[in-house]
Write a structure and sequence with these properties.
Layout (H helix, E strand, L loop, with lengths): L26 H11 L2 E5 L2 E4 H18 L8 H20 L4 H22 L3 H17 L1 H10 L3 H10 L2 E2 L7 E2 L2 E2 L8 H16 L8 H18 L2 H19 L6 H19 L4 H9 L3 H20 L24 H31 L5 H20 L7 H12 L2 H4 L10 E2 L5 E2 L12 H10 L2 H4 L14
Antiparallel strand pairs: 1-2, 1-3, 4-5, 6-7
Helix pairs in contact: 1-2, 2-4, 3-4, 3-14, 4-16, 5-8, 5-9, 6-9, 8-9, 8-10, 8-15, 8-16, 10-15, 12-13, 13-14, 14-15
InterPro entries: O-antigen_ligase-rel_domated, WaaL-like
Subcellular location: Membrane
Membrane topology: Multi-pass membrane protein
């Protein structure tokens, strides 16, 4: 049964229509999260499937039907744009790679759209959001011993255990890449950067999202453990996300009672950009990439990659290049593009890029516009989500995600859409006089102005208490006497 709508001060409903009062997690969400920590791969004909994709594929159709029927509240612009983006993926691949359009396009659609729908449709209250956060925080912290073990030995225990005991395939990043004296840990993901990325976005959900939900000691201890998980990924993008979030939380704490702190922060960022542009012989983006990577050579290579990719985008603006190899200098041996935003434009053209980015931005600012007047629990959850995905937006310029990592990130992205569905508070329009100037409304319970004669009459009869008149021991003299 849906909870009735109860309007609170400020014009926001206590619960939205079509939102269930049950605070427990859907079994589909539980299966989805289990499929991530148990990364099983199997074949269905020529198609390689994962447990995560199987869960999402089975859930997508009923979730889509129920969404269109209005069972999950009103349809958001992001819903429409992400659906159109999914369709455009197939169109772009049919033009460039018709033989792989179904397999590759379907996999990408399930990874992104399917995971978004899961969070969008099955997380409908702040209590359910907090339950999701608790599960992913505990799950992330439990991977820390595995990350430490892989960092020392280069052995991913869970994927190796699956391969040896079941005969099925699994993930496992066995590049034997060392940084700072440790191997890079991927744990249950296909790449170490994916593990670090997913752990980093959980940090803000734990540090800020669980504030007031669990004790301060445990919240800080769990947050430190998540920081350790991010460290053992030894990923520049993940560490960038973590540092960005810590910086934002520090700024918020230092300026807690100042209304314009975020405007000042934005101004300082713009000022820093202009200062670097004037003081350096390199562009601010090149300076940023150089210092945001653990390896300066990697940073230079990424800058060269971005320049070459932009030339390919200009040459194929409508449908992109699909899955084809992109044109680059002969010395650039790797075809990897570590930039999610550029890769979307490269593979699916500028229309696909526009649909994806606009859907992402509208969802982000939809949540941002509503948390300032929301109840405390929703404000806390929304702020944690905004900080996490604000940092992810920046890190996407230096990383690309796919498979279960993309599904995990966009499941969390969709899980805050119940906030974006909340109606904005209506502005109170003051009454106007005949001349058009604003006239303030009388205050509630304020005494009405009486003529001097009426005041004197009430004072003599003793009826002032019922009329709201303030008594005075001084006589009232009518005007003109």
């Amino acid at each position: 049964m849906s909870a009735p709508t109860e309007i609170q001060p400020g014009g926001l409903p206590r619960r939205l229509p079509h939102i269930e009062t049950d605070t427990s997690l859907s079994i589909v969400i539980v299966l989805f999260l289990l499929s991530i920590v148990v990364p099983v791969l199997f074949n269905i004909g020529p198609v390689v499937m994962s447990g995560t994709r199987a869960v999402l594929l089975l859930a997508m159709v009923p979730l889509t039907i129920n969404l269109l029927m209005g069972r999950y509240g009103r349809i958001l612009p992001t819903d429409v744009l992400f659906f159109l983006f999914s369709i455009w993926i197939f169109v772009a691949l049919l033009v460039n790679n018709p033989d792989q359009a179904i397999q590759s396009g379907g996999g990408t659609m399930v990874d992104y759209m399917g995971a978004y729908l899961l969070g969008r449709c099955l997380v409908r209250t702040v209590e359910q959001f907090e339950a999701v956060v608790k599960v992913v925080v505990i799950g992330t912290v439990l991977t820390l011993p595995l990350a430490i073990y892989q960092g020392v030995t280069d052995d991913a225990l869970i994927p190796e255990l699956i391969t040896r005991t079941t005969g099925l395939q699994s993930y496992g990043d066995r590049v034997a890449d060392q940084r700072l004296g440790f191997y890079r840990s991927s744990v249950v993901f296909s790449k170490s950067i994916h593990y670090g990325f997913c752990a980093a976005i959980v940090f803000s959900l734990c540090f800020s999202g669980l504030k007031g939900v669990i004790g301060t000691f445990w919240r800080l201890l769990l947050s430190l453990a998540i920081c350790a998980c991010v460290f053992f990924s030894l990923s520049s993008a993940a560490l960038l996300m973590l540092v960005t979030q810590i910086g934002v939380f520090t700024w918020s704490a230092l300026n807690r009672n100042w209304k314009y702190k975020w405007y000042l922060l934005l101004g300082l960022v713009v000022l820093a950009y202009v200062a670097v542009d004037l003081a350096s012989n390199r562009t601010p983006l090149r300076v940023f990439v150089h210092y945001a990577t653990l390896n300066s050579e990697t940073g230079y290579y990424r800058i060269s990659t971005n320049n070459a990719v932009m030339e390919n985008i200009y040459a194929n603006p409508v449908f992109g290049i699909g899955l084809n190899d992109w044109v680059r200098p002969i010395w650039m041996f790797s075809g990897s593009v570590d930039n999610l935003w550029l890769l979307v434009a490269l593979q699916y053209g500028i229309p696909g890029f526009a649909l994806f980015v606009c859907g992402y931005a509208l969802a982000y600012f939809g949540v941002l516009r509503r948390i300032s007047t929301a109840p405390a629990a929703i404000k806390r959850a929304g702020f944690a989500w905004l900080v996490g995905f604000g940092a992810a937006t920046l890190a996407f310029f230096t990383a690309h995600i796919w498979a279960s990592a993309a599904s995990f990130i966009f499941f969390l992205f969709g899980s805050a859409m119940f906030i974006a569905q909340m109606p904005l508070p209506k502005a109170q329009t003051p009454a106007t006089t005949r001349s058009g100037s604003a006239q303030p409304e009388p205050r509630a319970n304020a005494p009405q102005r009486q003529s001097p004669a009426a005041v004197e009459e009430i004072a003599q009869t003793g009826d002032g208490e019922s009329e709201g008149i303030c008594y005075t021991r001084f006589p009232v003299t009518p005007r003109g006497e």
